[in-house]
Amino acid sequence: MTKEKTGAVITGGDFQALGVLRSLARKDISVVILDSCLCISRYSRYKKKFIKSPCPSNADSYIDFLIGLAEKERIQGWVVFPNSDEAVYSLSTHKDIREKFYRIPTPRWEVIRKVYIKKETYQVAERYEIPIPKTYYPESIEASLEMHLEFPVIIKPSIRPHFYSKESCPVRP
Questions:
Q1: Domain-ending residue, one of 79, 97, 112
Q2: What pLDDT sits at residue 157?
């Protein structure tokens, strides 16, 4: 009996995942795509399989799903490539459980936190005098409207999924 080579699991199937999928497939690496929504990668000829998953922002059910998937699809030991902030959050906060079933390059939450929460990223940069654009941290839309800003401005969220009201899977740090 020959053992199948280690493959990859990509969480999320948007255009970025499609690029990763194609790169891995060209190296003859089997790839399973997971996504909670319709996505472009599910139609790629390069994937081994597309599997509809729960939303990764619901970390507990997502991790349970991944554990069951490893056993059901016989993909224990495959490398998981998170392709969204939500997946990074879920994977970083449940690293001990996941690593029994997969290879996870995502660091633990204590490491990820400073880059996941952009407000903290910018504060670290300011502390070490790394140049960044002038940055404000209003706690609400009302607070931002009271600010006297010089235009043009760029509005970016501290936590990306919280920014979009239509986001179906909000993430709570």
A1: 112
A2: 74
- The answer as to whether 1 is a domain residue is no
Q: Could you tell me the CATH number of the domain that includes residue 32?
A: 3.40.50.720
List the domain range (segments joined by +) for residue 125. 117-163
Q: What is the DSSP string of the chain?
A: -PPPPP-EEEE--SHHHHHHHHHHHHTT--EEEEESS--GGGG-TT-SEEEE---TTSHHHHHHHHHHHHHHTT-TTPEEEE-SHHHHHHHHHTHHHHTTTSB--SPPHHHHHHHHSHHHHHHHHHHTT---------SSHHHHHTS-PPSS-----SSHHHH-TT-SS----
- Whole-prediction pTM value? 0.78
Q: What is the pLDDT of residue 69?
A: 96
User: Is residue 83 a part of any domain in this protein?
Assistant: yes
Q: What is the pLDDT of residues 114-148, one digit of tens each?
A: 988 888 999 999 999 999 988 888 888 898 889 98
